[in-house]
Amino acid sequence: MAADPAAAGGALARLRARLEGPHTIGSSRGFWAAFAVAVLALFLFPWYGRSGQFSLFLVLALLGLSLSLVWGYSGVLSFGQVVFFGVGGYAFGVVSINVATPGGITAAVLAGVVGGGLSAALLGYFMFYGGVRDVYVTIITLVTTMVLHTFMAQTAGSAWTIGEAPLGGFNGMPQIPLLALGVEGASFQFVYNEFVLWLPLLGTAEFDPFYYLALALLVIAYLGLRALVNSDFGRVMVAVREDEDRTEMFGYDVRRVKLTAFVIGGALAGLSGVLYAARNVFIDPTVFSLTFATLPVIWVSVGGRKSLLGAVVATVAVEWIRVSTSGEWGLVVLGTLLLVTILALPGGLVPWLHGTIVRNRPDPADVEGPGTPDAHTEVSDQ
Amino acid sequence: MVNGLSLALQFLDSFAFIVLAAAGLAIVFGIMGVINLAHGEFILVGAYATTLAATQLGLPLVVAMAVGTLVTALFGLVVERTIVSGAVPNAVGQRVAGRDVMEPLYDRLADSMVATFGLSLVMVQGARIVFGNSIDQIATPLGEIAYGAFSYSTYRVVLSGVSVAVLLVTYYVFTRTDYGMRARATIQDEETAKALGVDTERTYVTTFAVGSGLAGLTGALFAPIVSMQPTLGDQFLVEAFVAVVVGGPSVVLGTALSGVVLGAIDAAFSNLYGTFVGRIALLIAAVIALRFLPEGVTGFVERVRTRRREGA
Q1: Cross-strand partners of A283
Q2: What H or E segment, with its residue span, contains residue A196?
Q3: Please, which residues have CB within 8 angstroms of residue A33's CB and are 6 or more apart in sequence?
Q4: How far is Cα A221 from Cα B215, in angstroms, rounded to an integer?
């Protein structure tokens, strides 16, 4: 196979065709070159930046991606992505504390992802098959977040211990074991593992493998979602976003489409929560708080809700700004940024930039352009 | 221990809280299709203005409350012109770049939520920067009712009376005045209303100011009993939100009904199992209500009425 360059080129072209379509930004050779440069820059980041903090942004970008799929592509504004994020984190904590062996911790990661997906399936079934639509979905998910926040905050004391793992109420759940993947005897520890690498010309360098784990998962998730939204299922998802009733008239089961997207988003948010809990070796009910619940909505709005790339870029950028302006003006800056972006660029920053760059080129398929009519259609028709 | 009288008082308390928290939000949501996530911060403005007017200027409490309400209504007016309708930025945009810079947020629920959340972040942090983490509080007036081993604040009982009065006045304004008629015409069909000579833009501005004024009134009324922190709006937002969606499209009736239902649930569960459980029960009740009555209680009432009319 490798001996035949035409077949290899064909495979590459097929792969590219799967990743490209009208629903994502960047189908040109130039885009993929820039993408490769960006990934390489992120790969080399630990040599010139603080990877420890940056890995958090990468983990949160997964959460941003999950909301972009659910809101931007399926038109379901979930104010409760943090529910699945938190459930994932707590499930990881509970399982890994109870079975603190590498095999057990690996299972705990799965438990977190499955937990996120299952809770999304439960809530999504309850809502979509019950005929709850539009803004009421948003409000139910928001209220669910608040229920969990109130509930988890009162789980202090020995009555709320699952196996060996105390839920800990407001104080949260400490003593989550370090993230190690593999089985007993053949495992690798990702958190707090200062890996020393010796390079022939550059000398030795230390870096933390968790950063690379997060980066790899983010790249995989981004490319995977790109393939998903450009597949046939992705087209149906976008159709549901644009006009639910019409899609239903064409014979699609709108409820199932929304539920599927919601579950995929939930599982991804669960994975993000697992990595968050693993990175901090700690999780507490603030992950369910109103402020935290709003952050994914902010990232996705600022970046451009109909753009996966926008979600990633905006998550990293907004979190960076949030952390570096941690003084008393931090929240004022963040709030103003949010306000100005949503008012002036309702399509989001990244599609606007993209539109500015490729304006000269005719691009009729560019559904992500800032001129596309926006959220009205999502909620206005009764 | 469940005591009939204390349960009744607690119900009145929850009812007043829910109705007062929700009234302003319900009007803005019902008429303009704008969800104001900064509603809690509008209440904050009312509470702070009242408290400062009473402690710094030495005004009598009732006058200070009127000041707080008025200040919040004016603040709402400014917010409507700059953020919700975009009239001011668009006027600037026309002059500088020759084009509008933004679209109004009317009937753009998701965008209005995100934008007003940004506003609320700025307001909470702004209040913290300007006034610090707390300001001096005014004492709770009117003393207490004592019966047996219990005592209860008279002021809270008065509040439940005020909440009923607010509902009645709102009902009167929306059914018996010219403004109310224009506002209802605007909800029904904005285009037709405009064609018939209703200045819908002015209706929107007035509505937002009235909704903000009600939020300010809520803040003013609760100023003596909640602690004066920049985050005080948070505790109102959830209940307000829940009450509005459980209530459904009819503003006054919906708010009143959800005040009764949610107030009863909150009072019963809080009394039996403590405030945590009461709050959880309230939220779960809301989720279940939305699942089975997606149009809220008044939407359900409306549907039953239509069905009966068609059957007859």
Answers
A1: A173
A2: strand A195-199
A3: none
A4: 44
Chain B residues bordering chain A (beta-carbon distance below 8 Å): 35, 83, 86, 89, 101-103, 107-111, 113-115, 117-122, 124-126, 128-129, 234, 237-238, 241-242, 245, 276, 279-280, 283-284, 286-287, 290-292, 294
Output the six-digit token pair for A75.
């038109």
Asked if the Cβ–Cβ distance from A143 to B242 is below 8 Å, we say: yes
**Interface predicted TM-score (ipTM):** 0.78
Most distant CA pair in chain A, distance: 66
**Residues B296-306 pLDDT 10s:** 777 777 777 78
Residues A28, A33, A36, A38, CA torsion sign: negative
Tokens matching residue B301: 């009432």
- Alpha-carbon torsion B291, B295, B297, B300, what sign? negative
Q: What is the pLDDT of residue A221?
A: 94
Tokens of A180: 């190690």
Q: For residue A114, what pLDDT is reported? A: 96
Chain A positions in Cβ-Cβ contact with residue B119 (cut-off 8 Å): 335, 339
Q: Which tens digit of pLDDT belongs to each residue from A62-116?
A: 999 999 999 999 988 888 899 999 999 999 999 988 888 888 888 899 999 999 9
Q: How far apart are CA A192 and CA B64, in angstroms?
A: 57
